[in-house]
Amino acid sequence: MKILKNLAIPLLGILAWEFLAIYLNNQVILPKVESVVNILLNPGVGLLGTGNLVENTIISIKRVLIGFFIAAMVAIPLGILMGYYSIVNELIDTPIELLRPIPPLAWVPLALAWFGIGESSMHFIIFIGAFFPILLNTISGVRSVPLIMIEAAKTLGGTTKHILKSVVIPASSPDILTGLRVGVGIAWMCVVAAEMLPGSDAGLGYLIMYAYLLSRMDVVVASMIVIGIIGILFDKGLRFIEKRYFSWKKMIK
C-alpha cells in the first residue's frame, strides 16, 4: 500500500506527460514517454556521436567526486578551525560572507582565466558549489558542541588536539554530514553547468546542450532523468551513513 502511495504521483505525472506529448505532437517541444524510456533502457547505445549514456554519466560522476572531495578536504578543517577558534572566525568570516552569495556560474569567466579550458575549470566550479554548504554546516556543528563536554575534557587534562579529535569532531560529525549531503547535491547541479563550458566534449551536461542544439529533446529529458536518479543515489548513500553511524543524535535531542 505504501509503495502504491509513493508511486501514485509519479505515475500521474508520466500519464500527464504522455497525454500532453500526444496532444502537442511535437518532439522538439515535448518528447513522448516511449522515446525517452527507449534511451534509458538502452544506455549502452551511442547518442549523437558523443558516446553512450553510461560513458557520459561516469565522466560526470568522476568530475563531481573530484570537485566535491577537494571542497570537503578544504571546508571541513577550515570549518572546524572557524567554529572552535573565534580569532580564526573573525579573520575569515567577512571574506567568506562576501564570497558565499556569488553563484557558482558567476565564477565561470575567472575559472576559464585561471585554469584555462578543460577539466580544472569544471572541477573549480563544482568545488565552489560544494564548498560553502560544507563549511557553514561544519562551523554550525562545532559551535553546537555542548560547552560542558569541552570543559570536562579540559578538566581531565585533555590538550587542544585531543579535545578536537575526541570531543569536537565526533560531536559535530552529524552536522558535517548534513553539509556533505547539501554539498554533493549542489556539486551535482554544478557539474551540468560546468560541462556546458567551452572545451567540454563529454558528460551529461555536454550531452544535454549538444542534444538541445540538435533538437533532440528525448536525449535531453533522458539525461535529466539520469541526473535526478544519480542525485537521489548520492543522497541515499549519505542518509544511510547518517542512520547507520549517527542515530545517537536523535536520542540526545
From TrEMBL:
<dbReference type="Pfam" id="PF00528">
    <property type="entry name" value="BPD_transp_1"/>
</dbReference>
<protein>
    <submittedName>
        <fullName>Binding-protein-dependent transport systems inner membrane component</fullName>
    </submittedName>
</protein>
<comment type="similarity">
    <text>Belongs to the binding-protein-dependent transport system permease family.</text>
</comment>
<dbReference type="InterPro" id="IPR035906">
    <property type="entry name" value="MetI-like_sf"/>
</dbReference>
<feature type="transmembrane region" description="Helical">
    <location>
        <begin position="66"/>
        <end position="87"/>
    </location>
</feature>
<dbReference type="InterPro" id="IPR000515">
    <property type="entry name" value="MetI-like"/>
</dbReference>
<keyword id="KW-0472">Membrane</keyword>
<dbReference type="GO" id="GO:0055085">
    <property type="term" value="P:transmembrane transport"/>
</dbReference>
<feature type="transmembrane region" description="Helical">
    <location>
        <begin position="209"/>
        <end position="234"/>
    </location>
</feature>
<keyword id="KW-1003">Cell membrane</keyword>
<keyword id="KW-0812">Transmembrane</keyword>
<feature type="transmembrane region" description="Helical">
    <location>
        <begin position="36"/>
        <end position="54"/>
    </location>
</feature>
<keyword id="KW-1133">Transmembrane helix</keyword>
<feature type="transmembrane region" description="Helical">
    <location>
        <begin position="107"/>
        <end position="136"/>
    </location>
</feature>
<feature type="domain" description="ABC transmembrane type-1">
    <location>
        <begin position="57"/>
        <end position="238"/>
    </location>
</feature>
<dbReference type="GO" id="GO:0005886">
    <property type="term" value="C:plasma membrane"/>
</dbReference>
<keyword id="KW-0813">Transport</keyword>
<feature type="transmembrane region" description="Helical">
    <location>
        <begin position="7"/>
        <end position="24"/>
    </location>
</feature>
<feature type="transmembrane region" description="Helical">
    <location>
        <begin position="179"/>
        <end position="197"/>
    </location>
</feature>
